[in-house]
Design goal:
CATH superfamily: Class I glutamine amidotransferase (GATase) domain
Strand content: 15-25%
Order of helices and strands: EHEHEHEHHEHEHEEEEEEH
Number of helices: 8
Number of strands: 12
Subcellular location: Cytoplasm
Main location: cytoplasm
Strand order of the largest sheet: 3-2-4-5-1-8-9-12
Shape: globular
Structural class: alpha/beta
CATH topology: Rossmann fold
CATH class: Alpha Beta
Family: Belongs to the peptidase S51 family.
Bound molecules: aspartic acid
GO molecular function: dipeptidase activity; serine-type peptidase activity
Number of domains: 1
Largest sheet: 8 strands, mixed
Catalytic activity: Dipeptidase E catalyzes the hydrolysis of dipeptides Asp-|-Xaa. It does not act on peptides with N-terminal Glu, Asn or Gln, nor does it cleave isoaspartyl peptides
């Protein structure tokens, strides 16, 4: 079901408590891409940051492991840049803005095609949401309106990044994350993988592996959620 050529790092978050931007994951990124160059896609613009500033942050973080970074926004011909990229990294921010921009630039099909030809894809957060079927389980507000919620669809399930457990001592009465995902399942069938901060999926040869310190919470429609500790996620868990 997953294209065996696809190589993905589906990372919940770029920053974990006590570490600088990408610090905890940069060695994994270096080993994963097996090269020294990344095209960075800054279109999710976290906190409204500019494309240049966002790309600079990534440059600063990855130069320490010998990776050079170019922002996709700096290329006149973005399709060509994607086609010739050694590796692609799509950063987090607002998922609606990210997907809308990629549709508007006409890059969705290029991204699918290069990844199916083996170009390594790294996503953090919003960039990870795009690896799933739809962006219907993002935590973001719909600040803009993409032409479709369909994502890149490398994975036959959805991602919920920054998955958050309810705080038993909280007096807050808003929906928990689990409640929101249950609402999603009233209208949608696909499995949702809740990735806690500091966890990521590594996908190679059609196999999905959960890595990092924390378990993932997996939501199947009309079933009790599953806590998956680590290791290979069997297809029967995410197949519907
Ligand atoms: N806003 C998140 C990010 O950092 C995405 C999400 O929570 O769905 O990219």
């Amino acid at each position: 079901m997953i294209n065996p050529n696809d190589r993905l790092l589906v990372i919940s978050t770029s920053t974990i408590h006590g570490f600088s931007f990408l610090e905890y994951i940069k060695d994994e990124i270096k080993e994963f891409i097996q090269s020294d160059e990344i095209i960075f896609v800054p279109y999710a613009r976290p906190s409204g940051i500019s494309y240049d500033d966002y790309t600079q942050n990534v440059k600063d973080a990855l130069q320490t492991v010998g990776i050079s970074v170019k922002g996709l926004h700096t290329f006149e011909n973005k399709k060509e840049a994607i086609l010739h990229a050694k590796a692609i990294f799509i950063g987090g921010g607002n998922t609606f803005l990210l997907l809308k921009t990629l549709y508007e630039l006409g890059l969705i099909e290029e991204l699918r095609s290069v990844v199916h030809n083996g170009t390594p894809y790294i996503g953090t957060s919003a960039g990870s949401n795009l690896t799933g079927l739809t962006i219907g389980t993002t935590n973001d507000m719909p600040i803009v309106y993409p032409p479709s919620f369909d994502a890149l669809q490398f994975l036959p399930f959805n991602i919920n990044p920054h998955y958050l457990d309810p705080d038993p001592n909280s007096t807050h009465k808003g929906e928990t994350r689990e409640t929101r995902i249950n609402e999603f399942h009233k209208f949608n069938h696909q499995v949702v993988v809740g990735l806690r901060e500091g966890s990521w999926l590594r996908v190679e040869n059609g196999v999905v592996e959960l890595k990092g310190k924390l378990s993932a919470r997996i939501f199947r429609q009309n079933e009790q959620p599953i806590e998956f500790e680590s290791g290979i996620l069997e297809e029967k868990v995410y197949r519907i």
